[in-house]
Amino acid sequence: MARITFETADGKERTIDIASGQSIMQGAVQSNVPGIDAECGGALSCATCMVYVPAEWAARLPLKTDDEDGMLQFSPHVNERSRLSCQITVDDTLDGLRLKVPASQH
Ligand code: FES
Hints:
Layout: E1 2-7, E2 13-18, H1 24-30, E3 50-52, H2 55-58, H3 66-72, E4 82-84, E5 98-100
Parallel strand pairs: 1-5
Antiparallel strand pairs: 1-2, 3-4
């Protein structure tokens, strides 16, 4: 399990516990985190689960696949910190992770 904090564009924070083995997106949707719409349900075809990962965490996450990278290119708000939260599986090492939700997803 990991405790993960989501910061929305209006500066509000939401911290939730996500069970190991779930994706970050699944945990966020179950807890109604604003801005994580996940319209495709994790099928890697919507990019509405995008989050921004701070630099200090970027290297600690599993690497992006080519498919994730390709999907991100469809988002007009992608930047070098962007990840698709449906593609990151939670384990204990992610405890304390802080993510920003793009303003465009509010
Ligand atoms: Fe659609 Fe992640 S939920 S790409």
